[in-house]
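Worked example (supplementary).
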Amino acid sequence: MSGKQNSAGKTVFSFLRNNTVPLMFILICAVCIPISGFSPSYLLNEIITRLGRNAFLILSLLIPIMAGMGLNFGMTLGAMAGEIALIFVSDWQIWGIPGVVLAMIVSIPFSVLLGWVCGKILNMAKGREMITSYIISFFINGIYQLIVLYLMGSVIPIAHGSIKLPRGYGIRNTVSLLNMRQCIDNLLAIRIEGVKIPVLTLLIIALMCILIVWFRRTKLGQDMRAVGQDIHVARDAGINVERTRIISIIISTVLAGFGMILYLQNIGNLSTYSAHSQVGMFCIAALLVGGASVDRASIGNVFLGAILFHTMFIVAPKAGAVITGDPMIGEYFRVFVSYGVITLALIMYEMKKRRQKASIGAQLALAQKDDDRHEPGIGAQPSPARKEVERHE
Amino acid sequence: MNNKRKWIFRGCTLLFVLLLAGLMFLVGRGHTVYIDNKTLEYNGESYSALERSEVWINGERLSKLSKRDRTMTTTIGNSFEMKLINTEKKGDDPTEVVVKLSLPYSWDGILVNIPGYLAGLPQEAWLSEFIIEPTPMEEDAEEPAGEDDIPTAEF
Amino acid sequence: MKEKLASFVASFGLPRLIITGFLLALFILAPIVGVDLPMQITNVINRFSWNAILVLAMVPMVHSGCGLNFGLPLGIISGLLGATLSLELGFTGPLSFVMAVVISTPFALMLGMGYGVLLNRIKGGEMMIATYVGFSSVSFMCMMWLLLPYHKPDMVWGMAGKGLRTTISLEGYYDKVLSNFLQINIGKVSIPTGALLLFALLAFAMWAFLHTKTGTAMTAVGSNPTFAKAAGIKVDKIRMLSVVMSTWLAAIGILVYEQGFGFIQLYMAPFYMALPAVSAILIGGASVNKATIVHVILGTFLFQGIVTMTPTVMNSVIHTDMSEVIRVIASNGMILYALTRRSEVSR
Amino acid sequence: MSLLEMKNIRKDFFGNQVLTDINLTLEEGEVLGLVGENGAGKSTLMKILFGMEVIRDTGGYEGDILLNGQKVDFKTPFEALAAGIGMVHQEFSLIPGFTATENILLNREPKKKSVISEVFGERLDVLNRKEMTARSEAAIEKMGVKIDGTMVIHDMPVGHKQFTEIARELSKDQLKLLILDEPTAVLTEKEAEALLSSIRGMAAQGIAVIFITHRLQEILDVCDKVVIMRDSCVVKDVPSSETDIPEITRLMVGRQMSSVLKTEIRDNPDAPIALSIRKLWVDMPGETVRNVNLDVREGEILGIGGLAGQGKLGIPNGIMGLYDAGGEVTLRGEKIPLNSPRECLNASMAFVSEDRRGVGLLLDETLEWNIAFPAMQIQNKFLKNYLGGLIKWRDEKAIREITQWYIDELAIKCTSSRQKAKELSGGNQQKVCLAKAFALEPGFLFVSEPTRGIDVGAKSLVLNALKRFNRKSGVTIVMISSELEELRQTCDRIAIVSGGRVAGILPATESAEQFGLLMISQVK
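After joint prediction of all chains, the assembly is encoded as:
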């Protein structure tokens, strides 16, 4: 009887522990929504807009996680590739959906190149992929600035003055994408009780999800999962580990490029030098809010995360303003929460690794007790967890 | 053999993507079309402005042009179609004209003169490139904020 | 000869060589293109004196094997708390600096200890988590700067009467108190003796510490934690000590920076302060697990040299200010280089 | 024609002969049992056969390997696999989050083509799950032991993991020869039986098996012939029906003892107990200790021997606090708290670890630091006190002197006392480790595998230094070694650890067979 209760308590506890972050966010949202006083239809509208805007970007993070490379802070690279493509396309004056499609095509070579570089570097820094990919995003940002601020218009031909800085080269701080603004969102869009649903965008996202599911079932997907779980075993089995890892980063970068283009077509203008700088951080935070961890993430995490994170994002400033009378508090609060959630997820991941190690000692002590009782029996079997843990150190 | 087959497939895909890109260049080219109702001087002759001209695009009225008025619209692709409902002189009955134009690829802004078009003049008389003087915007050319940016609210 | 050169390049590191060469070229170019060299040198020395202690703060954690302290902002926050409280409590002039140091110390110790406990629980993942601990604490303090009951009129927003301003002028407080202390002027070059002296003092203390029993233990922990454990060292305690030291030095470092700069910068300003310090010490020759005082001095000088010299010299040469971009590429490139080296401890 | 023939195989690691003129033949469907002490050369032989990279990296091997009469020389394990040789290693090579089926067919999955894979290459083929299930089931069938193909590895009992590995080898159609390296070590009795019968089944299907184990009964049960190795040579190659366990044991460990050192061995049963160990368990990966009781007498050198992986290394590592441990340890009547290296060192115990590079040395620091460090930290030696002891300054001069003294005393070959530890050879590094322990002037010393990986000359120097230290200063020493001969030369009494427990304690003068029997008594 008590044993049953105990095990039920344990399941509840482990459920709570494994889902701390999403539960915390549900709580935050539940408190903030009534305080903010937004109407449900407004909220719903905003959430759907933001879901359509961001889901694709967040999806791009899944594949490196599958390949065991952690959260790809280098997705910023894809975002930059997308931005470069958009600058070109808007200089060529290709508008509307053709503009978006062309930008995606143009972004591919840039993304592949950047992803390849990133993958190469990460292969040199195994075990600290995350901090390295994080620094790579800064480093490439420098190169991006060099290209966009100094080379475009002077070396790389840019025809239109409207996107160039007055000095004759370099791109302006904002490039208007008015001519492709929400072109995808508005096509086939339907309104239900004042809530606009961008059907085409959602279709594209759904297609992407199907692609990811399909990808998991391919040989390459299987190899990535193998590499992600145990790099040595995968190598012994003849899988080209380095190449597989590079491919996973390239795919992620290309998808991030597409995601950034979709994101910017919704926003309608491009902040040339800052649009990408926070994108990685927000996407990673959203994914983690959805209950993903450094080594495990699913499509469900993406959507749950996008919805919860953006609900918080919408209501926090207003709620903060209502509570403290200062709208900035809410602004800072949501920034704090984004960083806090990443910090928490990273800490929990590292602690989980340590906990696994510590549990074996406890098992041995237990076996010893059994041993005493059954003396002089041959004794307990080596603990089954043993070998796995050794390998994973 | 297998390799060859692989490269054929890859080549086809690449070709397809490039063709798609090319197609996008054609169908996605955006233009701004300016429609003028002004008196046109051509070869010493003068074609006077209409009393009134309504410009309809895609079944919606864009604007109503009086004498010396100008309106503008944007269009994607190189073919452009509009319907004009013209009143030549005060008191005249309005006449309907459907205008179909093929827009030159390299021009961003295109100026169409209605009186010239209606008079059946050669194309170079009523179709011209419209260049906006790049107005020096007061946007500061300072360094981008870059990494010191505060995370923005817009996301 | 060629081999010797190759081995020198290998040991010194190509990126480091490029950066040193670049700075040398700048110094040579400067007089040719008509830049005021004495003024530039004064600038470099001044900026060196502002930043050196922040770079010095990297040393203890590198020594104890915690890696590069990307969590520097945590220490900076303690310094900012000390600074603002010192002003709020009405101290002025040099005394306000002393009080800022005194007040920030307990904050640095407390935050450092918490940070140390955390880092001891996540051995192996220090650098990434440190980065994000820094970020979260900065964004948390953004709220606090608004909410904490500061009242001093020259610190808070004029309209609301509460909430600290983003930048607070230190005029009348400790603006340049160290720099002007015993300042030496040789021709056009002026040397901020006081600030340099404080750095020298702290650097000496650090050097001395590394020669004591505990300092030796710290180096051993960084060099081989299992060896240290087998030799009876409480590894966690030593690591904790190094984290606290680093945090405290960061607190002092930001105060010295402020006295040179003349302003307290709040809110998002400490956000990316770790990166320049990290890349400076790496440029100086440190690696993820080895760092000395020489690396600190050399690195700060090289880094600040590039930061100050590039804008002016580049501007005179090509009439474009590419310094920001060059700084970003050089400093982050240096960090990348260090991260991708196989960790230099041979096992 | 034989399936496999190995002729005059020789191999040395940097001048250290590990295989001498090995000859071996194996017929189709034959089961060969390979036995020998650790370090006898079994695994090196198998590595050569399997084309492991480590062999080529260390200069290759001499002699010929003939497979079906054809000379082969595998550059990589993949070539060996292609030629029909499969090997199940001691450590599992399985992906924990995959099912048994996915692991069995790892990187050999049947696939289906699609338009996308035509463009982006065959890695984008979709896996053919149905075919995978069929193939893995066929392999499991072949093995004769029932395991669930859909079960995820990390939920499996250890035995099933082992069977998954074997099934993986069996799923390769070209498999002709299967090498099993101590496959029963992790199995329960029932599972081991199942495995043995499946080996017989495989043999019946014409697959030859090389079976390495320490459980001699298994060899006799299942093998057609036994090959016994000792000291890098094959000492006997007999049909298993013509031999028995005592003979095999004797051949495994038997050796003529050098009579020179025998005289120095003393046994003093009346000496007081120095260290008493009760109910010790240690969680050291691969060297688990369970319920060890052991008494060490004052002034003796006690040897601890046993086969690798049986837990002998866990004992000192656990007591000295390097791995999680539990139980009771008393030194001269005082209880020593476990899991605290500091307390042990304070109680004047010292430890020379078997893991020189990982635990024993600060590779990037000077010899001075290495030798003086523990003594400085534990006993405040080599320090100058300033401000009434507030500042404890490193006394570089004293450190240099003591280092120099040990360099001379132990004949450490180095350029100076400031040379970095990583630049020394293995034997000299070991001497530095000893010097580090001696500098603590301990009352009780653990020495773990003092001669591992060092050449013969250095070996006797190190062992002599230990013996001298014990005899001169009367320090009690516990020496752990895999080499029985070395223990018998140096120690007074020898405890044999088997299956994580002390199987017995014998005087060093006892015959090799006796030790051998103890070694395999509780092997699991």
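Two points are worth noting when inspecting this output. The longest helix of chain B spans residues 2-28. The radius of gyration of chain B is 23 Å.
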